[in-house]
């Protein structure tokens, strides 16, 4: 995959992050695109086989290649790893953690409660956002702010997809409404905490922290019981997506 092909993949499969990439400095866009393309591959890997052991073997392949890159070994020509190496070099070794966090997906292991979902989001969406924010200039002092924001954003995305995850065995073990409400309220609180301390995050990191459109409304609807995420889809219109991205581009504001 050339950089151009990776860009097209992210544009088609992850439109919110793709739109945010365009708000980043041009010289940083290749790094973000390749990171997000990798994330798509890691998320897809556990579902390339219905057999858990085979799915985990596919995921392990990514873990091993990323670990080798971290040790300075250039990967073989590959659709994703080659442009990733060109943008990140040995720093890509840290991304093995993103792959490790997907192991439970291989077993189609549902979550027993909200705390398990929060841990999963921190290890996947949370780490991903921190890698991107660091690349755009976020320093160590701002990591707790980014972590809170990433948790809120990641939980919102997970809840938005719950009606699709539940039939796959990747939602909750039981369709417990209270679990969804608890997660929505946890997400709201995390976003509030990040918003209060947003000044600690470098302004140039805004593109990495873009939350996506209609997050506050989605969380409010779930927290109040007006929307059942087990059954109801919360669609985003093209206009809503464009308006949300325009706000980011014009103001640099990622917090709520």
From TrEMBL:
Pfam families: SQS_PSY. This is Squalene/phytoene synthase family protein. The lineage of its organism: Bacteria, Pseudomonadati, Pseudomonadota, Alphaproteobacteria, Rhodobacterales.
